[in-house]
Structures are given as structure tokens and as C-alpha cells.
């Protein structure tokens, strides 16, 4: 059942983002920033935590989940370390995911021979 919940919630988030991309003139980079900021805002308001508890990876894998994880890291670091946690928390909370994506991207570039667009 948890796979179905993750699939439905993740699919709904991705579907709404696809509609946003198709119906507006927003550039993909701006939409990505909007998603991260929405994840942070939803985390601050306490809206995103119940969604993560319900859907698991369906809520944490989309880009708004990255914003939520940044917020959770900052919140935890502020509680533990005070003011310096504002700057340190987001980095420590997201470092594993960012490192993994860089490593996997590098390995993919070695295997698949990437080319620049003209």
C-alpha cells in the first residue's frame, strides 16, 4: 500500500508541475526554484510533514521534497547549535543527496559519451 501512496502523491505533484510548465511561460529554472521554495514554505507551515508521513518517497523525491529536507536540516541545526545552524543545517541535511547525484552523473557521463547542444 505504501508504494501506491508514493506513486499517487508523487504522480500528482509531477502532474501539477507539468501543467504549470505547459500553461505558463515560466522557465524551467524558475520553476525549480519555485518548487524548492514551496517545499521550504510548506515545511515552515507544518503542511509538508504529514504529506511525507503519508506518502514517503512520493513526497520526498520531487524537488519540493528537497526544499523540505533543507528546512528540516536548518530547523534541527538551529535547535542544536543556535544561530550558526542557519548556515550549517541545510548543507549537512542535503550533502548526501547532492554528493550521490554528482557521483552518479559523473559515472553516467563516463558511460554514455555526452555531447553539447549546438
Automatic annotation (TrEMBL):
Annotated TM spans: 31-47, 91-112
Keyword Transmembrane set for record: yes
One protein family per Pfam: SpoVAC_SpoVAEB
Keywords for this protein: Membrane, Transmembrane, Transmembrane helix
InterPro entries: SpoVA (IPR005562)
Superkingdom per UniProt: Bacteria
Transmembrane helix listed as a keyword: yes
Protein name: Stage V sporulation protein AE
Species of the source: Frisingicoccus caecimuris
Amino acid at each position: 500500500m505504501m508504494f501506491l501512496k508514493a506513486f499517487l502523491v508523487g504522480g500528482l505533484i509531477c502532474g501539477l508541475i507539468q501543467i504549470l510548465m505547459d500553461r505558463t511561460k515560466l522557465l524551467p529554472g524558475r520553476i525549480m526554484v519555485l518548487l524548492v521554495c514551496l517545499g521550504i514554505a510548506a515545511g515552515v507551515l507544518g503542511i509538508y510533514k504529514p504529506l511525507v508521513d503519508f506518502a514517503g518517497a512520493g513526497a520526498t523525491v520531487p524537488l519540493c521534497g528537497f526544499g523540505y529536507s533543507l528546512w528540516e536540516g536548518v530547523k534541527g541545526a538551529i535547535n542544536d547549535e543556535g544561530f550558526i545552524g542557519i548556515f550549517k543545517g541545510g548543507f549537512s541535511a542535503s550533502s548526501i543527496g547532492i554528493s550521490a547525484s554528482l557521483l552518479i552523473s559523473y559515472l553516467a557521463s563516463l558511460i554514455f559519451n555526452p555531447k553539447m547542444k549546438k
